[in-house]
Amino acid sequence: MDAGEIVSTIVQEFPYALYGSMLVGAMCAFLGVYIIAKRVVFLGAVLTQVSVLGLALTFLPIMAIPHTVGSLAVTLAAVLLLSRFLTGKRIPKDAVLGFVFVASIAARILVMQKAPKVEVAEIENLLRGDILFVTPDLFLLMVVVVIAALAAHLLLFKEFTYISFDPETASTQGFRAVVWEMIFYGIAAVVISVATHMVGDVFVFGFLVIPPVTAMLLAQRVRDIFLCSVLIGLIAPAVGLFFAFRFDFPSSPAMVSVASLLLAAAWLISRLRRS
Question: Which runs of consecutive H residues, i.e. helices, occur in 42-92?
Fold first, then answer.
């Protein structure tokens, strides 16, 4: 197929894959700016694995609940614990995140061993997320979650920005960091949980990290960093989906690869600026 036919096929036959990946890419890129600024990059990987564990639990007979509900419940429970440990100083943040990450993977493997024997490919696709087969209901749920998350961030932009970019100033001005951290992590957990179910953990973690880092190489002001990161989150999935169809690549890796190329280009631009 030529370029025009590929674009037409994507728009007409896979609209939810296109718009869903762009929606998730933009929202993850937005949240990722906070996560990078807070220096808890590994948090994205941890929450995606916790979310996948929640999905796996719903395959057990004693957990006969919708997959999204199970994923969301487990992720929120993990966030309540993480928010306490990540704001403390006794245990390093990396150690806390590393423990939850590996424990989630181990628990998921054990759970899947005890789940009823069904089609393995079907389970793997659900746990990994399949961009090309995003359902209208899941897309609508993601839209609602994104709107709610953006509304919360707009209302609390000052508080979230202070605790992320300038925690010392926030502390001197009387901001209760523990409370705002818990609220932020709770919002992030909801977004990551639904997004992971929709497009998979590789995509979610990739767009939580790559667009924000790229934006920080290109922009200086905080608002410009957010804008640049979101734009990358919108553009990279669309371009990646095109190349996935053009060269018969898996969708998620293609999208993450496009974002990675943009990061490499941004790094070169930043080096040229310095020289």
Answer: 42-57, 67-86
pTM: 0.84
Torsion, Cα 61 65 70 73, to 10 degrees, reads -120
Token couple for 138: 């899941």
Q: Are 75 and 50 in contact (CB under 8 A)?
A: yes
Which of 37-51, 200-214, 215-229 has the weakest average pLDDT? 37-51
Rounded to whole angstroms, how far apart are CA atoms 49 and 235? 26
Token readout for 58 is 């719903």
- How high does pLDDT run on average in the chain? 83
Query: Taking Cα atoms as reference points, which of 53, 62, 136, 49 lies closest to residue 98?
Result: 49
Element holding 94 (H helix, E strand)? helix 93-114
CA 218 to chain centre: 21
Are 184 and 167 spatial neighbours (Cβ–Cβ below 8 Å)? Answer: no
What SS3 state is found at 224? helix
* Cβ atoms within 10 Å, residue 95: 10
Q: Is the pLDDT of residue 27 over 80?
A: yes
Query: What is the three-class DSSP state of 59?
Result: coil
d(Cα 28, Cα 8) in Å, to the nearest integer? 27
- Classify the phi-psi angles of 187: left when phi > 0, otherwise alpha if psi is within -120 to 50, otherwise beta: alpha
Beta carbons within 8 Å of 145's beta carbon, 6+ residues apart: 190, 191, 194
